[in-house]
Amino acid sequence: MAGRGTDEHPHGADRLCDIGDRVYSRAVRRGRVPRRDAEPVPCLLDLALLHPDPDDMDWLVPTAPQEVMTRLLRGMYDEVSASQRRVGSAVEAFEWYAGLGRQGPASPSATEGPAIRVLDGVARIQAAMDEATQACTTEVLTVQPGGIRREAELSEGLHRATALRGRGVRMRDLYTHVARHGQGLHTYLELMGDAVEARTLDEVTERLILFDRTVAFIPANAERSMALELRHPALVEYLGTVFERLWRLALPLAAPLPDTGIEGISHRERSIAALLAEGHQDAVIAERLGISVRTCRAHIARLSETLGAASRTQLGVKMAQAGLDGPPRSAAASVTVPDRGSRTAR
């Protein structure tokens, strides 16, 4: 994996540099090392031999030597036909890691893998996702927040989706209603055919990708340059349950959005009105619905015009009178728009 410091440390996990050897060995013996100790050896992070401690980001914890051995062995089998000469050095590396593993305390992750692993950097996140994709055999569940998906984002995961489709894996994706307006999403679904089913909601949770109900990935920071890889059964089951409940509430992409029951007010404007009634600021509403702040304010202006409100305070009153401050009323109920004559909608 390419990454930081590869020019200064051009090697793999099977042959560490001297300082990398010392820092990693110390981490195994002590259970963790300060992040500053690894600054001279970025190779340890690039090779996933060290990763941030979820409880304290100023410390790094080691990947269990047994896990490193398993990873090396898997890579060796993939490359053996093209590079027989690497077998000898890999065997020597296994012996070194095996000896080192006996020096450290026994860890549950040595046999089961870590329940929570911090992935620092886009390259590590993508590598972990590729590994999970290769192991997936049944289903992938994803939640994709935000608005219209950029074609670059869709293309980034296309190779994984294509590989999954080739193995008969079922994929279900949740988006916000705004994503319906992006041509890139429709093109992606056409390419994937029946392998992918998509539904939409007014708003969804943060990004989630769940493979075979065994491993999940969620963001670990706002910039999404860090992620958490979750393998704890209780956490993964909980996230799967959240997805299924959202899925039942969501609308198939091919289905039209429901009518608001109020003339001149769109489904999106009803959603904005409900969030305004909860006291949210424009920026928060825009983020939750996957639209820009400018677009959000344009919808609020149209709401004010339709309801005849001259101020935000008056808008709140008008929304309550029109029944826009809570769940939609029954379609059979007649709603009168305040201060707009006798105009009604059903």
TrEMBL record:
Pfam family, one: GerE
Domain of life: Bacteria
Transmembrane regions listed in the UniProt entry: none
Taxonomic lineage: Bacteria, Bacillati, Actinomycetota, Actinomycetes, Kitasatosporales
Protein name (Swiss-Prot/TrEMBL): LuxR C-terminal-related transcriptional regulator
Annotated segments matching region Disordered: 322-346
Domain HTH luxR-type: 258-323
PROSITE patterns from the UniProt entry: HTH_LUXR_2
